[in-house]
Amino acid sequence: MDMDQLKRQAAARALEEVRDGMQLGLGTGSTAKHFVELLGERVAAGLKVIGVPTSEATRADAERCGVPLTTLDAIDHLDITVDGADEIDPELNLIKGGGGALLREKIVAAASDRMIVIADDTKWVPTLGRFPLPIEVIPFGLGATSRAIEKAFAECGVSGQMAVRKAKDGHVFVTDGGHWIVDARLERIVDPASLARALSAIPGVVEHGLFIGLASSAVLAGGEGIRVIE
Ligand code: 5RP
Q1: Which one is catalytic: 105, 150, 187, 207?
Q2: In angstroms, how far is the first alpha carbon of the chain from the final one?
Q3: Tens digit of pLDDT for each residue in 75-97?
Q4: Is 29 annotated to bind ligand?
Q5: Between 20 and 30 A from 197 (CA), which of 64, 71, 184, 204?
Q6: What is the rounded distance in angstroms from the CA atom of residue 206 to the CA atom of residue 137?
Q7: Helices 30-44 and 56-65, packing angle to 10 deg
Q8: Residue list, ligand 1 pocket, CB within 6 Å
Q9: What is the rounded distance in angstroms from the CA atom of residue 48 to the CA atom of residue 22?
Q10: Subunit details for this protein (predicted)?
Q11: How many angstroms is it from 195 CA to the middle of ligand 1?
Q12: Cα separations in angstroms, 60 against 35, 53, 89
């Protein structure tokens, strides 16, 4: 089975948790896109749900699939957010933001009663860090912000190269919020919770891709079948 089929299987398993009347956070990325498409099929068959997209790309997908949308200004909470991840550790800490949507993804996940992470099982790692950590920054004062980030890395026992993310056309990648992303190659994040706190305290950092204590469960699809970790 190819990777895309595994992602769709994970999405289908998460869809089993969705009930009529639910308010859903809709994640971003190739795995979350499968969820939106499958949800659209259920909506066409009569399921009543409403979704909050975590990116403009997901908004476009949801509209194409006929999933009704709302905002976090119009409703006061979400029942479930279903989203992908770049890495998942055994504590269900995550690295997210490979698709550049980490800020809205974290706002939506934090507003949800439950966050279900869907992924193929290559995303499951014993320790976070192999995937470069995305850090969303304000372009103003980036030199000072980068030095503060390096200091936070040193205090948390990690080090590595940082690079401003580029889009496919070679220009700087700009997030839906109008910010830039710095990707940090750290290899092994020994204490993700401390690093998350240290990065959050830096004024030029808008948000970072460490999702600590937000995921309630992970649905991992692999050659051996589906594994649900809670
Ligand atoms: C986007 C994300 C994605 O969820 C993450 O990059 C995983 O994407 P994919 O399902 O395509 O592997 O965090 O910001």
Answers
A1: 105
A2: 25
A3: 999 999 999 999 999 999 999 99
A4: yes
A5: 71
A6: 5
A7: 30
A8: 27-32, 83-86, 96-102, 105
A9: 7
A10: Homodimer.
A11: 21
A12: 14, 9, 30
Instruction: With 0.90 as the threshold, say if the pTM is over it.
Output: yes
For β-strands 133-137 and 180-184, DSSP reports them as antiparallel
User: Is the pLDDT at 18 greater than 80, yes or no?
Assistant: yes
pLDDT score at 103: 98
Distance (Å, whole) CA 195 – CA 152: 7
Supply the DSSP string of 32-67, one letter for each residue.
HHHHHHHHHHHHHTT---EEEESSHHHHHHHHHHT-
Residue nearest to atom 6 of ligand 1 (CA): 98
Atom of ligand 1 nearest to the CA of 31: 10
In this structure, are residues 211 and 96 in contact, taking their beta carbons and an 8 Å threshold?
yes
Pairing verdict, β 23-26 and 78-83: parallel
For 104-121, the pLDDT digits (tens) are 999 999 999 999 999 999
pLDDT for the residue numbered 3: 92
Report the C-alpha gap between 208 and 135 in whole angstroms: 4
Residue nearest to atom 10 of ligand 1 (CA): 31
Our separate counts of H helices and E strands in the chain read: 6, 13
C-alpha 31 – ligand 1 centre gap (Å): 7
224 is catalytic: no
The tokens for 111 are: 């507003």
